[in-house]
Amino acid sequence: xxxxxxxxxxxxxxxxxxxxxxxxxxxxxxxxxxxxxxxxxxxxxxxxxxxxxxxxxxxxxxxxxxxxxxxxxxxxxxxxxxxxxxxxxxxxxxxxxxxxxxxxxxxxxxxxxxxxxxxxxxxxxxxxxxxxxxxxxxxxxxxxxxxxxxxxxxxxxxxxxxxxxxx
Amino acid sequence: xxxxxxxxxxxxxxxxxxxxxxxxxxxxxxxxxxxxxxxxxxxxxxxxxxxxxxxxxxxxxxxxxxxxxxxxxxxxxxxxxxxxxxxxxxxxxxxxxxxxxxx
Amino acid sequence: xxxxxxxxxxxxxxxxxxxxxxxxxxxxxxxxxxxxxxxxxxxxxxxxxxxxxxxxxxxxxxxxxxxxxxxxxxxxxxxxxxxxxxxxxxxxxxxxxxxxxxxxxxxxxxxxxxxxxxxxxxxxxxxxxxxxxxxxxxxxxxxx
Lengths: 167, 103, 144
What we know:
- The complex is a heterotrimer.
- In chain A, about 65% of the residues lie in helices and about 10% in strands.
- Chain A is mainly alpha-helical.
- Chain A has two domains: about 40 residues, no CATH class; about 120 residues, no CATH class.
- The longest helix of chain A is centred in the middle third of the chain and has 34 residues.
- Chain A is globular.
- The two termini of chain A are about 35 Å apart.
- In chain B, helix 1 runs antiparallel to helix 2 and helix 2 runs antiparallel to helix 3.
- The longest helix of chain B is centred in the last third of the chain and has 45 residues.
- The relative contact order of chain B is 0.09.
- The mean pLDDT of chain B is about 85.
- By secondary structure, chain C is mostly helical.
- Chain C has one domain.
- Chain C is about 80% helix and about 0% strand.
- Chains in contact: A-C, B-C.
């Protein structure tokens, strides 16, 4: 099941990047995608026990997650702009390092959480040790926002809804 | 109009790269320099698309932009990993020195 | 060739011309120009932050965020401006540029995280509030 999905993803990539629809290029694409799928299909989707419907739900929720995180990126840039351009903003800088534990378990969810933390205003992930996140923040109230755990909840809704039900 | 827009955008991008180049030139630590190179590399991907618009061959230059973004990412990861490993080696040496002192 | 006193004037008049002479898609082009200028403004913020901020970690804040959004905005703007007709090849071009945008969206935070981790393991400690206060006191002392 999963090899076919990976093959289709690779082939879609091939079509977008080549942009030609004659028989020669399509056959070349099928051959190369088949070879890549055969050789290295275990790199993508490490957890093979999940069903395909579950993956579809994840994809749909991830697509719904993208606009929210884009809005967060815009807010982060306005924050950086304020800090860089105005004098009050510059005096507001008081960097610190915050440590917190997450309840997410899979590696991919942690990756998405770390990247989301990096893109939200004033915070960058510094180190990940197991389930411990060390985060560098710009000021005090940003730290409070982070420890409320809104981002974590959003990521958990996408990837691990069963963790949220337990809470 | 597309022509004018591309020229002005390219010139403005070039002008705004000057502060970043200052950071590369002065940067107190080597990480500042890597950071500046990374920023300029990302912007070069945009510049490639702009050049493609000027030559009216965007479909070709977008491929270059993809390749450049990929190389930039791989370069940043490799350099940071390399510095990481060097540091652990330094740690090892300092530990060895401590061990030698104890003897 | 027309002569323009300032680039903004040139942009404005060129935008008006596009509807009449070239017959492109005016709405798309105007949105694209706006997105591009917005990207330039955010890149200005990132560049100024890169020069002004006190230590490496805070500079990384400016670079990591400003870089991501400004690149995304500028590339999206160019994708809209170069959209000539709604044929298959122009759609493919749009999808390709959006692929670059998505790629940068994924990789830029990852590389900034890698740099930060490398710097942290290189015993480069981040400055704290006390350091900034000390620095301000020193500056005030020199002035008075």
